[in-house]
Design goal:
The protein has 313 residues and is of the alpha/beta class. It contains 10 helices and 11 strands.
Length: 313
């Protein structure tokens, strides 16, 4: 079968990009968020992107694909959220994946989510997902991987990757990628001698600046911002990039450069997620939307390696 992918909850296309880099073509993608769709179209030319609520789509009308990929909404399972799980309408969207899988019968299902998915609700949530995939006739492999250990990306980002195969022999042959040597630290991406656009710098009248000015003093690390707390990250790593970076109470990591205290730029955040240099945002979306999109995306380099391993079985 041709190496094709159908993408659900496509976001800005991090998973799609990774599979494309591993030799797959993207047959179609589905995303409901209008701002994400603008970014997706800006970077994927001639794409078959369906801008719609997944619940309104009949999968029988879509072209069948070898791989069904989905980074389904994680807010319901994240330790940073309320952890309402399947009691949250976003958590229930997982069952839409089952509806598509039943109709399309792909050889492989690729899923990505927060690492807390395993422990959520004392393991009941993960068991529900596992049992649903088994009920559909799939054999499961899963593992939590950290971006800095498997993606050569200096970000503290743990995510669970679930690979489901229709063929048990392929499932048994599949091997998750080996750890790779981290050859880059955060300063590889941060040019502290370059003045960035004013929008990134904290103003002295900002509440966050008043908190950060006595803490963000070093030029060799990135600082995590979480609610009212600002803390340095050790070993020249970047903290986990989250969707809350785009909220009104900004949670974007901070650095001190030669010109002041600033947030990581959009380009730096994309670099920490492993996106290529030619990937960027259209000028038709807000900077807050862009930050949110980055936090909701994936570590591209890890997904690419997993896609390559799938391609080999």
């Amino acid at each position: 079968m041709e190496k094709t992918v159908g993408s659900l909850f496509s976001g800005i296309g991090g998973i799609d990009l990774a599979f494309n880099q591993a030799g797959y073509s993207i047959s179609w993608a589905i995303e409901n968020d209008a701002a994400c769709c603008k970014t997706y179209r800006h970077n994927f030319h001639n794409c078959n992107l369906v801008e719609s609520d997944i619940r309104d789509i009949d999968p029988e009308k879509l072209v069948k694909v070898e791989v069904l990929a989905a980074g389904f909404p994680c807010q319901s399972f994240s330790i940073a959220g309320k952890q309402r799980g399947f009691n949250d309408h976003r958590g229930n969207l997982f069952f839409e994946i089952g509806r598509f899988a039943k109709a399309l019968n792909p050889a492989v299902i690729f899923l990505e989510n927060v690492s807390n998915l395993i422990d959520h609700d004392s393991g009941k949530t993960f068991n529900t997902i596992h049992n649903k995939l088994v009920e559909l006739g799939y054999f499961i492999r899963y593992r939590v991987l950290r971006a800095s250990e498997y993606g050569n990306t200096p970000q503290i980002r743990d995510r669970i990757y679930i690979i489901a195969f229709k063929d048990i022999n392929k499932c048994e042959k599949f091997i998750f990628p080996d750890p790779v040597l981290l050859t880059k630290n955060a300063n590889h991406y941060i040019a502290r001698h370059e003045r960035k656009p004013r929008v990134y710098y904290l103003n002295e009248t900002d509440t966050l600046y008043k908190t950060a000015k006595g803490i963000v003093t070093r030029h060799d690390c990135v600082y995590r911002v979480y609610h009212e707390s600002v803390k340095p990250i050790r070993n020249q790593m970047c903290p986990t990039l989250t969707a809350s970076m785009g909220n009104r109470n900004n949670q974007c990591p901070l650095v001190r450069d030669d010109y002041g205290i600033r947030k990581l730029t959009l380009r730096e955040c994309l670099d920490f997620q492993g996106f290529p240099k030619d990937y960027y945002f259209p000028n038709t979306i807000s900077i807050n939307d862009a930050y949110k999109q980055i936090g909701n995306s994936v570590c591209v380099s890890i997904v690419r390696q997993i896609a390559s391993q799938i391609n080999q079985v």
